[in-house]
User: Fold these one by one.
Assistant:
Number 1:
Amino acid sequence: MKNMRTAPEFQSLADSIVQLAQNRIVYFIPSPGNWGDALINAGTFQFLDSIDCNHTVLQRSELLKILPESHEQGILDALILVGGGGGWCEIWSSTRSFVREISLKVSQVIVLPTTYDLEPIVGTGDNVTYFARDLEISNRRLPEAKFCHDMAFFLDLSVPQESTMLPRVVALRVDRERSTQARNFEFSVDMSLLGDAFSSVLPLFEIINRFERVVSDRLHIAIAGCLLGKDVTLLPGIYPKSQSVYESSIRENYPESRFVEWDDFQFWPLNERQ
């Protein structure tokens, strides 16, 4: 698998976690979402195991139940690792809201690699450390964020090689993040909706590994194709999240992949590079 485990940005993230953990209890709060978010979570689990980070996994609702209800009760002396992703934009803002709520009640928070398309949370102190998974959108919104590749790029899996390969799979999104310029394709399937953030990621990789080429406007379907060494065409969604990650991580490391605007894309013939 063509992952990016040796990238220095992952070591920088590891150093930050070790520094802030000290003698605190560490909680990892996985990202909610679809099957694409499962790649983020699976990569994060492998990453934390690789740095021997002793941690407890909690869902967001479980963490909220154990936090102090008021300042009079003090704060929880813990390091909270908030799963990264795209939950910091107008369409999906749950991660931003969650970090705002917990940052006033715990010692330290690290937001794992995320795209920041909204302003940083208001009213928090210096106990939140931000990691951005892109150098474009996030740098404009939150210039103090440290860069690290999306946690899915840390994944290492043994995926069976198929003896017979199909030419291509088209996997286009059907949710609110779909671009207004997107076009329909009769044989497309939104694979990200076939699982959720806590599904096993191996079946997704097994499906994608049956194809020579991957065409998608889903960032993590494209990332899965990159990790498998496929020929990948990534199309935009409604905001420049995918292009920003492409420019920051994919372009240089996965030369068989490309980002194409909808106006420049033609479904057929898909045997030609676009």
Number 2:
Amino acid sequence: MLIYEPMDQLPNNSYYPKSDEVSSYLKQFSGKYSLDYVLKSIEGLSSLKALVIGEAIIDDYHFGNILGKSAKEPIIALRYAREESYLGGALAIANHLAGFCQEVGLLAMLGEKDSQEKFVRRHLKKNIKPAFVYKEHSPTIVKRRFLEDSTFRKLLELYFINSNNLNDRQTKALIKKLKPLLSRYDLVICADFGHGMFNSYSRDFVSKKAKFLSVNAQANAENFGYHTISSYPRADLLCLDEREIRLEHQDKSGDIDDVAKGVFNKIKANYMIVTRGASGSVGYQGNGRRKIFRVPSLATKDIDRVGAGDAFFAITSALIYNNVPLEAVCFIGNMVGAIAVSIIGNKKSVTKKDLVDFIKNTLGQP
């Protein structure tokens, strides 16, 4: 696998034409929250120590130039151009957080064979303290994507994965490593990709022992229909995309607020944020103070959505823990997501400087 230095540039948001919806929202938001308050909310994360737990994933991108349809098969033929590999999954979430927080603990699942541990350690940021569990008879998860080089359109995904759950002995080893970490860190971010690291016992353990728990249970091609957020009995923050929350509530097209209410009735949670792609995000405040905040999408350059939800999840979790108001959290989260979709995969983490500059431009201060 070849690694290339990030070359993505943050789009200059000062000059992009805002829709009427976005312009109206930014005027309303600025009337409630000053630029100074938003920037101080971000700077307030600098002393935070957070723990990320979840599956390690390597995102493997293979780029090619389309030659056309194969002469003998109904498939597209590509001429190889290049390949790049990035840290994904819980590793990417830890890297995003590390740019904002003082210290990030990490407990991730690698494969016992072809672990790629040296590659992982080499590309984690310096203020991350990693620990690993190793899954038997498994490689570290690799998700290989084949793309057209000029447009970055994805053509095919190939997973290197063993998605069986950890056995009882390995689950005990996981719990043994978790215990001291959960007592050390106040904020715990659980990135459950449904690829076998967690089972009902370990999920219950995390739910009971974490002081402040933020959870995402991702629905993806490998686990779709078998992995939903209700496998966690409680959380302080649930962060899901619209497909995931609808899957949990078994409601494909109903009003999103009704769907969210149904999930709140199932799971004990204080906050829930639902990301909706081009439709922005919706924040729900529970705990007896039912409030709803809607924030439009603020993206100006949509190159690749892989990893954008993880970046959003990382920073909004830290902001909620720091008692930033939910509406401001959703706004900052959408700004993070807007930066992330302008980057190929997890080639570059969202940095504090990128975020601060983008917010200044968006709210009118160059």
